[in-house]
Amino acid sequence: MRGLMLRLIACLSLFFFLVPVTYVRGPVPPANDSQYIALEPVALDTRNPGRTRIGRLAFLGGWKISSDNGEFGGISSMLALADNRFLMLSDNGSLVGFTLDESKHKALRPFIAPLPDGPAPPNEYAKKNWDSESFLHDPGTGQFWVGYEHQHSIWRYGPSLARKESVNFPKAMQKWPDNGGAEAMLRLPDGRFLVFSESAEYSGGGYQALVFTTDPSEPDSKARLMGYQGPQGYKLTDAVLIDDRTALMLHRRFTPFDGISAILSVARLADFRPGEVATSVPVASLKPPVKVDNMEALAVTRDGEKIIVWIASDDNFSALQESLLFKFQLLDADDSDKQSRPEDQNEKAGASPGFSTFESE
Question: What is the DSSP track for 184-238?
């Protein structure tokens, strides 16, 4: 009986997950422009609160994020800046910023505000016109890049996101599915940009990605096509550089019987070549009983030699989902073996080579 109820809940969640929120939303509530953001600590596994491991991820903290602001939610990408400052981008074109006080579970200096400009005039279907899915930042210049879905385009904004600097609607992106746009972006150490489609199929396998040799927000930039093949049954939702040779890739899957799950994997930058199909190696799988939602946003920071991984979820503006922020340490394969716990054995069975494997090739 319990299993049947769980499947029923999963099916209801699937409805809200797949149907655009505009279609299921009731009367528009009065506008609320509250700037307060609340953080509530959450355990990795509520059935086993002491659990701190998933594959090669060591759990360091987790929070449920909420706000009464009507524009809060739908977190699709994020940047982790200095001093635990986070800048999150919503798929309705809103920015969410705060400094994370981990010890007091507080969001300091919070704000929620719209982007200064976007692909089309705002209207009641804001998600279609302002569906911002990917986010990059250049600390040197202060510039930001945003990839939009539906209105397939790449926009560059100036320091502090004060104004639009340039915009491009790349021809190759206009053939992408309406809801399969610029789900993730990477800026490689050599200056190239990669823009990944969530669902446009690549003839050689996997899904399409575009390799830009120059700034993709400039109208005269040229792109070449490649493919990216993630774990079977999963679609890419975000990507971020680890170092000058590797990237972390975040993937999502939703089925009516299994619910939501996510896989984090490592890819080699050398494999991102026009005409080729790049793959990645899984390092951790987030699935029940681990607390998991529609994981769409990914960021990496450093704590000395430690690689810190931040993952956030998109609640689709649905009361059935949550905006979560998780903090993990990414362990090397050798460290993962030493610290393995019994509940992680299934994750280890599908474990991947460590960074040492990449370095030796």
Answer: EEEE-TTS-EEEEEEEEEPTTSSEEEEEESS-TTSTT--EEEEEEE-STT-EEEE
What tokens does 34 get?
């509250």
Q: How far is CA 173 from CA 183, 198, 199, 220, 283, in A?
A: 12, 11, 12, 14, 30
Q: Which domain holds residue 234?
A: 2-25+32-360
Distance CA 258, CA 94 (A): 31
Q: What does the pLDDT read at residue 256?
A: 86
Strands 223-229 and 277-279: parallel
Residues β-bridged to residue 99: 85, 108
Distances (CA, A) of 360 to 241, 273, 354: 19, 20, 10
Q: What are the angstrom distances between the C-alpha of 57 and each of 146, 249, 329, 347?
A: 28, 14, 6, 10
Burial class for 7, CB neighbours closer than 10 Å (0-12, 13-18, 19+): middle
pTM (2 d.p.):
0.86
The helix (run of H) or strand (run of E) holding residue 22 is helix 21-24
Q: What pLDDT shows up at residue 337?
A: 52
| Cα separation, 55 vs 58, whole angstroms | 8
Q: Which of 211, 87, 69, 213 is nearest to 159 (CA)?
A: 87
What whole-number distance in Å separates Cα of residue 210 and Cα of residue 238? 15
Taking only the tens place, the pLDDT of each residue in 99-141 is 999 999 999 999 999 999 998 765 545 556 789 999 999 999 9
Q: Say which CATH number the domain at 190 has.
A: 2.120.10
Amino acid at 226: M
Asked if 148 and 118 touch (Cβ cutoff 8 Å), the reply is yes
Kindly state the tokens that stand for 173: 């992106």
Query: What is the rounded distance in angstroms from the CA atom of residue 361 to the CA atom of residue 352?
Result: 15
pLDDT value at 15 more than 60? no
The per-residue pLDDT for 9 is: 45
For residue 184, how far is the Cα from the chain centroid? 7
Number of folded domains that form the chain: 1
